[in-house]
Task: inverse folding
């Protein structure tokens, strides 16, 4: 079946601009995660949704970052007033309910470059 | 706060050599442990996982990992690597009392020479 998809695959923006990154999880997966991966680092947890609600947003670095999942499927990560330090690959993952709920299925990521 | 360390940044091996990648975590409670792999140009994918029971777990493509609770370690092993194992390997930890918050290590890049 279809995996996790993310759009756009690449985004170049200027410092100070607003960006939105989209994630389409695997159909039926109730949990959705956002991570940020900088060069040479592992994925860094940002936020986790269970259904429509953010169950854990402790990884969001500051109030410029916000994410929504209004209907419990597609999610959008929003970054306001972008800074050069926001440049990274933003990864989305989803997982099902039940015994396999800790297995995350990752998307290809969106590479964000802030000039 | 939880943290995960991976001992080697870059490992270079010849085909048929044995592999062991180290992973240590800092958290005293119950944990779920994972190894993910990212082949060049591909998504992160699960290699194997440990929740409970037998501390030696087997994953895909001949990989296995051993959980040693007293050492807070979850090292990844493969008896004989292939050129196709060239990839980046990430260890990840989920502290059960922290819900579904996962902490990843910095990764180890494995290069297998043909």
Result:
């Amino acid at each position: 079946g279809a995996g996790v998809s993310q759009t756009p695959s690449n985004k170049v923006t200027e410092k100070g601009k607003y960006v939105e990154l989209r994630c389409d999880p695997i159909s039926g997966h109730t949990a959705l995660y956002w991570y940020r991966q900088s060069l040479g680092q592992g994925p860094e947890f940002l936020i986790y949704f269970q259904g429509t609600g953010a169950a854990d947003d402790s990884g969001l670095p500051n109030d410029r970052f916000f994410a929504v999942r209004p209907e419990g499927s597609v999610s959008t990560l929003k970054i306001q007033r972008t800074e050069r330090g926001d440049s990274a690959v933003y990864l989305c993952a989803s997982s099902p309910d039940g015994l396999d709920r800790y297995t995350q299925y990752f998307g290809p990521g969106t590479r964000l470059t802030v000039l | 706060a939880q943290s995960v360390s991976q001992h080697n940044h870059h490992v270079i091996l010849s085909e048929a050599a044995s592999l062991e990648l180290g992973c240590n975590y800092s958290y005293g409670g119950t944990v779920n442990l994972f190894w993910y792999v990212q082949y060049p140009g591909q998504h992160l994918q699960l290699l194997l996982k440990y929740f409970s029971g037998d501390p030696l777990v087997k994953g895909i493509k001949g990989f296995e990992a051993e959980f040693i609770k007293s050492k807070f370690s979850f090292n990844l092993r493969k008896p004989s690597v292939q050129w196709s194992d060239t990839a980046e390997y990430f260890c990840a930890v989920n502290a059960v009392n922290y819900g579904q918050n996962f902490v990843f290590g910095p990764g180890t890049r494995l290069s297998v020479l043909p």
Notes: Chain B touches chain A at residues 4, 32, 34, 36, 43-46, 49, 51, 90, 92, 94, 99-107 (CB under 8 Å). The two ends of chain B are 41 Å apart (CA to CA). Chain B has a mean pLDDT of 93.
